[in-house]
């Protein structure tokens, strides 16, 4: 980003071994490429998730789509164009009713399981690399051996802490019927609306107009000039549907039973607010893992929580044309009456808000918090888009059609799925028929289309070797006995030529 000289440093692990699938529970059926990221820029991560990668803590993995048991397709929602469905409105109204009246629904959530527990993505420990080797590579004369390679100075960990800062049908008078329902009186032949009577108005519009008139009269009596004028209701205004924010911000009575507040705290580097609420947040996670995922009491450890949901390779970055909160990794904490009841882990990237995980207190399992938090995060994305126009997408992680319980993500429309071969976005409506016939599908219908950012020259891939940054062409000459060309070629093909020329691949 602007003024930021940080670089991404990764260790690539390959993807030959199968491991347990968190969706179908196949013990060896899940296959993915993986790499450990010591540090990563938000632009590099944006480019990686647009090629099917996804992070779990500092581990970044990419499912091997034509091999894994449950193919996982990257899905994004056009947040600005999103309109809540009938089921989404029901969830929002359920939350509003709970806050205003204190009525907690009975029974379990009918809902939406989160992505599989992060550790099941198969992260591995990185090599024993010294802090100096990872953070402070220097340019050597070797780099000059390839003239076309862009010059790179020094990898810096610190980021400058510079905050940028149609017409309505006439109504009919209902008449009562014996069973208590109402029905409309059929119109008499040849009779239409009485032109001598004013058009029918909704009761809420009449009440609003009377309220405004009373306010004008009060202000006039007090000698205050009023600039408020009643706006006559028009059919367009009357029929305009509520948007997402209308449902979320629906006015509640002063005597509401509960108070819900959503707080955004930066998790990396941890803000004071994040540190102060860490213990409370961890306790909610522990209860969630034991109740929802049936973990034993000793498994949801604090170190596990920190490693998978707090640690992140993304440093804080700010840009003049970016959102005020900056880019990077955050927790959205849901505080109910002064205590944390749910936490959404998210990344704010140059063109999207990426959902990482959600956990919540089991006491509120009937509140459909999976869907509710997604709706709140879509609304948050729309808010950020007003500050940064290019930030207009909401990434829901992976869409898994072969797992029926994970199909709920496809209900956030309009949305796209990422083609696993050409890395172009395809509307989900065009993808679903293919997924009904096969777990793995190429969504791009152009048979001649390929990966536009495919590897063209592995020699330009950047390597971090003995604290020096060099193109792979120079590295391979220096290590004539090296047998890792196949691995480097595989890695560069997976991240794409652009990322290969920016990301530093650590070689021991």
From TrEMBL:
Its EC number is 2.3.2.8. Residues 281-419 form the N-end rule aminoacyl transferase C-terminal domain. One of its GO terms (cellular component) is cytoplasm. It catalyses: an N-terminal L-alpha-aminoacyl-[protein] + L-arginyl-tRNA(Arg) = an N-terminal L-arginyl-L-aminoacyl-[protein] + tRNA(Arg) + H(+). It comes from the Eukaryota. Residues 224-241 have a biased composition (Low complexity). Keywords: Acyltransferase, Transferase, Ubl conjugation pathway. Residues 163-202, 214-241 are annotated as: Disordered. Residues 20-90 form the N-end aminoacyl transferase N-terminal domain. It holds the Pfam family ATE_C. SUPFAM superfamilies: Acyl-CoA N-acyltransferases (Nat) (SSF55729). The keyword Transferase applies. GO terms for molecular function: arginyl-tRNA--protein transferase activity. The keyword Plastid does not apply. Belongs to the R-transferase family. Involved in the post-translational conjugation of arginine to the N-terminal aspartate or glutamate of a protein. This arginylation is required for degradation of the protein via the ubiquitin pathway. This is Arginyl-tRNA--protein transferase 1. It comes from Seriola lalandi dorsalis.
């Amino acid at each position: 980003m602007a003024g930021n000289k940080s670089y991404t440093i990764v260790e690539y692990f390959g993807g030959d071994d199968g491991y347990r699938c968190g969706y179908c529970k196949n013990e060896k059926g899940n296959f993915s490429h993986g790499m450990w990221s010591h540090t990563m820029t938000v632009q590099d991560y944006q480019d990686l998730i647009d090629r099917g990668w996804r992070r779990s803590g500092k581990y970044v993995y990419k499912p091997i789509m034509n091999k894994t048991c449950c193919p996982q397709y990257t899905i994004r929602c056009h947040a600005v164009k999103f309109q809540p469905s009938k089921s989404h409105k029901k969830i929002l109204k359920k939350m509003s009713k709970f806050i205003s009246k204190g009525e907690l629904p009975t029974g379990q959530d009918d809902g939406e399981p989160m992505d599989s527990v992060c550790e099941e993505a198969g992260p591995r420990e990185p090599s024993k690399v010294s802090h100096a080797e990872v953070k402070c590579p220097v340019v050597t004369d070797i780099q000059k051996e390839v003239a076309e390679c862009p010059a790179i100075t020094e990898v810096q960990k610190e980021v400058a802490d510079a905050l940028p800062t149609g017409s309505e049908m006439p109504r009919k008078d209902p008449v009562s019927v014996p069973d208590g329902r109402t029905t409309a009186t059929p119109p008499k032949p040849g009779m239409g609306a009485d032109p001598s009577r004013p058009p029918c108005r909704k009761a809420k519009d009449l009440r609003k107009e009377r309220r405004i008139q009373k306010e004008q009269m009060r202000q006039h009596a007090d000698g205050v000039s009023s600039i408020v004028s009643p706006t006559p209701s028009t059919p367009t205004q009357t029929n305009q549907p509520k948007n997402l924010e209308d449902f979320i911000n629906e006015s509640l009575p002063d005597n509401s039973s509960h108070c819900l507040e959503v707080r955004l705290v930066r998790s990396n580097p941890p803000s004071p607010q994040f540190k102060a609420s860490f213990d409370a947040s961890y306790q909610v996670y522990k209860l969630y893992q034991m109740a929802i995922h049936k973990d034993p009491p000793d498994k949801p450890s604090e170190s596990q929580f920190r490693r998978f949901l707090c640690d992140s390779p993304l440093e804080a970055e700010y840009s003049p044309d970016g959102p005020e909160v900056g880019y990077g990794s955050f927790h959205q904490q849901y505080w109910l009456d002064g205590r944390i009841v749910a936490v959404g882990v998210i990344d704010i990237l140059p063109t999207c808000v990426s959902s990482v995980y959600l956990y919540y207190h089991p006491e509120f399992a009937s509140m459909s918090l999976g869907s509710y938090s997604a709706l709140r995060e879509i609304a948050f994305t729309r808010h950020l888009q007003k500050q940064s126009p290019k930030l207009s997408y909401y990434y829901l992680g992976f869409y898994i059609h072969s797992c029926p319980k994970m199909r709920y993500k496809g209900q956030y429309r309009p949305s796209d799925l990422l083609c696993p071969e050409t890395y172009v976005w395809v509307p989900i409506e065009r993808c679903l028929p293919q997924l009904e016939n096969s777990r793995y599908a190429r969504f791009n219908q152009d048979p001649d289309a390929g990966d536009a950012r495919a590897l063209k020259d592995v020699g330009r891939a950047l390597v971090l070797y003995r604290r020096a940054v060099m193109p792979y062409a120079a590295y391979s000459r220096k290590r004539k006995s090296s047998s890792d060309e196949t691995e480097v070629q595989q890695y560069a093909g997976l991240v794409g030529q652009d990322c290969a020329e920016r990301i530093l691949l650590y070689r021991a």
